[in-house]
Each structure stands twice: as structure tokens, then as C-alpha cells.
Fold this protein.
Amino acid sequence: MNKPRYRGVFPVAPTTFTASGELDLASQKRCIDFMIDAGSNGICILANFSEQFVLADDERELLTKTILEHVAGRVPVIVTTTHFSTRVCVERSSRAQAMGAAMVMVMPPYHGATIRVPEAQTYEFFAALSDALTIPIMIQDAPVSGTVLSAPFLARMAQEIEHVAYFKIETPGAASKLRELIRLGGDAIEGPWDGEEAITLLPDLDVGATGSMTGGAYPDGIRRIIDAYAAGRREDAIGEYARWLPLINCENRQGGLLSAKALMQEGGVIACEAPRHPFPAMHPATRAGLIETARRLDPLVLRWGR
């Protein structure tokens, strides 16, 4: 693999709403400031963990502009621009690039539970997107799309499509797929990354992952794992992974995409943790377990705003 332009911890920023469901841009800016202070190497916005599926198009544009202007180059920002339509995705991505995005993250075309496109059209989709951009493209390979992206197909796109260079692998057996992707793609695989809130981080690092896209609440904890591993201190990384794994598990298996906002409200980072209707709020017992688990680790999120 070539030396990556971007590596490390790039957590997903949640989208902050008021209790009545309006965008809360003041909290959004505080969220971003906290994530940078907590050691994020970069930030991803408008992903599924950002509740992108409840946002109107004009809200996406407002959030992209607001966040990129507020970050002001302090860290690189990845903007998620997924859409079924090639044309719409190209337009979204071009606007994000013009506003200062360092990279775009895109899922293969899909809609609902059954509408997919064949491999040939998926290739054409990413080729057209690459032709419109000068920044890297990260392909998000996640079960939610229902699209099978084999390691040979991903490697071929990396080798043949100029700006396809980063891959967020979140499918079952992520480490095995990352290993095969790196083997097949060689230097074209600039950024093999893991996701899923770092639940598989250690085995993914063992096979060559260079980045992780996690939830946004405790990048300081994930940095302890990745930094130790990158410095050649694998035993220290294993120890930190074991230490933080209960909280990672709470987020990945219990609280889901609302975990980051619950922790951020608890620590005074944001004013309101509510999702936008019809997404259900976190059960109080689940929230209590999340906060209890986090307090044992003393992450910055519980202290930053107090």
C-alpha cells in the first residue's frame, strides 16, 4: 500500500436537533469542537450515524457549509454524499468538494430493501463520480445497502478508477475481507479502514487497517488503541482495546446511533440528545447502562462541557 494521505480515527459526527426536531447549529458546532479536542484525526459528517436519512436536501447543504466553515481546516472532513442517482451523487459530491471536503464517502446505489443495480452499473456509478472529482472517494461497504461488493470487485475499482482509494469495510468477517482487499489491490488500496464503532478494530488492525470510522463520543479512547498499535506496541493496544471494549459494545450492540448524543448531552457538549421523529428515543435503562459504562473510563466527553 502507498502511504495514505489520511489515517487514524475519523469518527462520525452526530447531527444535533432541538427537542422539537429543528437543527441545533450551536450544539453542532460544540459537538465538532469537542470531537477535535478529543483527538479526532478527522471527522465524517452526514453518515448513517449522523441520521442522514432524516435530513432534507437543504439541511444537508446547510450542515456541510456550517461544519466545514467551523472546522476551518483544523482537521480533514469526510462528507457522506450517498444517493441512488449517479447524477445526484455527483452533484452532491462536487458541492462538498467545492466547500472544502477532504474526501467523500459513498455507498453503492441502493434503495429500500430490494432495489439494487448490477455490478456493471455500480462500476459506472463510481467511475462517473471519480471523473467529476479531484479528492479521494471512500466506498462504504456495509450491510445496510444490501449490495454485495466482493474484494476482487473493490480491488478492481481501486486499480482502474482514479479517485477510488479508501474503503470502509463493515461486513461480517471484516478482517478477512480487508486482508484480501489489500492483497488483491496492492498500492491502489490507499486506505483500508474499519467501521462499526470499532467493534472489530483489533483484528482489523492486525490485517492492515490504517483507519477507523467510529462513533463520535470517545475518539480519545479509540486513539489509545490505534496510536499504540501504530507505534508498534501491540500488547498495549490489546490492553486498551480490552479496556474500552465494554463501551464500544454498548454503542455497537445496545445504544446504536443515539449513543454519541446521549454521552454528549450527559457531558454538556450538546443541549439535546433527541433523534428526529420517527426514530425512537433510547430506552432509559439502555441510556443508564451506557453512561455507567462510560464513567468507568472517564472519557473527555463526560467532562468537556462541565
